[in-house]
Amino acid sequence: ALNRSGTSATVAAALVQEGKDAAAALDEAQDHWVLENHGAEIGFRHPLLRTSVLDLATSAQQRSAHRALADVLAADPPSLAGTWHRAEAAAGPDRQLAQDLVYAADLSRTRQGYAAASAAMERAALLVGDAALSADWMATAAEDAMLAGDGARTTKLVARVLDGPGPPRAHGRALLTLGMLEEYAGSVPYATELLASAADRLDGEHRTRALAELAL
How far, in Å, CA of 122 to CA of 87, rounded? Predict the structure, then answer.
């Protein structure tokens, strides 16, 4: 249920990592019409079955499965899926893992899209253990969410930045993102207020961008 690659080989290797008989386990799941195999790919017969599996699994079981998948994918260091599994298995702050997620987000913007980059940046912000970096990365996650066209997620992430103790620059970036969202898909008068407030908190390239949007 947690496998992102879709390949049966990854699942089988993770089951072996957990001390299971991979062939027997996969055969049993298919015999009970839970999973279906299409050559090298394996998946659930219906999305609700996957949801049910995750609902029934405890947090500890899910972390254990993430660790097993991460171990299997460790042979490919740039693996985005491997980095994500390591992040989901983490139980506390991990600065190096957070940096790896930022790298994964950079790759995602050109490979998987801005939605994936936003998810990686949000997880990195939660793992880094540094209030200033966390706020800055959460602001980046909001920017990526806006570029992905997800207005609701953008608003939620901006609120997390503005409600936190981050530096003025992070707050300014969050206000700039929200101002642009309102400018193009909401209230122009409210966008004007947000962009003006953002410009007051920013400098350099971001201030120029805020002023340009304000001029528009």
Answer: 11
Q: Which is it for the CA torsion 50, 117, 128, 156, positive or negative?
A: negative
pTM of the model: 0.84
Residues 67-113: tens digit of each pLDDT: 999 988 886 666 778 888 999 999 889 999 999 999 999 988 988 89
Q: Catalogue the E-assigned strands of the chain.
A: 35-38, 41-44
Q: Are 82 and 70 contacting, i.e. CB atoms less than 8 angstroms apart?
A: yes
Which helix (H) or strand (E) covers residue 52, if one does?
helix 47-56
pLDDT per position as a tens digit, 133-168 = 999 999 999 999 999 999 999 999 999 999 998 899
Contact 145, 115 (CB under 8 A): yes
For 13: left if phi > 0, alpha if psi spans -120 to 50, otherwise beta; the answer is alpha
For residue 85, the SS3 value is helix
d(CA 39, CA 150): 35
How many residues are recorded in the chain? 216
Q: In this structure, which amino acid lies at residue 144? A: D
Q: End-to-end alpha-carbon separation of the chain, Å?
A: 47
